[in-house]
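Supplementary Methods, section 5.1.

A reviewer requested that the exact input to the structure prediction be made available. We therefore reproduce it here, unchanged from the version used in the analyses.
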Amino acid sequence: MKAVILLAGHGTRMRPLTYYLNKGMIPLAGRPLLEHIIVKLRDQGFTDLLVAVTAYPEQLEHYFGDGERLGVRIEYILRPEPSQTAGEVAAMADRLADEDAFLVHYGDIICNLDCAAMARRHLETGAAATIGLVTGVNFHAGVAELDAGGAVVSFVEKPPICRPTHAAINMFSPAALEYCQPGKDFAHDVIPQMIANGERVMGYLDEDAYWHDVGRLSDVEIVSGFLAELGRPW
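The structure derived from this sequence is encoded token-by-token as follows.
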């Protein structure tokens, strides 16, 4: 089963680091971000990887090569300009159409969601899509509660979200490729459209998983500290 890692784009939220680094090469606890993702996927049984990349692809090719050093096979899909998450998958549809299913893993997160278990559940249910879900993700703003008169009765800065939250890791069957078009996003466009069209869309909730965004420069130190404390790549 193939796994797609989405690293297309210019990493504008990570500047100035991404002025000279592919965002997958940003160091976290002594390893590039992409290495943490690859090792996790390998350990969970995903060894056939497609990496969508725009900026500085030569950096990934030089460091990771064909993936043999890490026990995987990597094919780089060069994207001159990013085309949203589903657009990147549309560009590699010919490589995915014959798969029973495929995994899509965003390239700017650190998460130990059980992808192997999610893949098994996806195949068992015959779903067109299975959305990876986690809990306890921190909201990126303060949340207030008001009384009837408008007075603030409670305020919590960046509270954890208790509801199931998109982990940015999903399973898709080939039927989902019909919804993947340039400029389309999985979360905003594809998954809502699949649900509206009556496609079987399942959720896989891993309540024990941790989840960290690495989409902003401010996240690097936080996630690096977390991984260093963890004492292993993922």
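Residues 217-230 form the longest helix (14 residues). These observations are discussed further in the main text.
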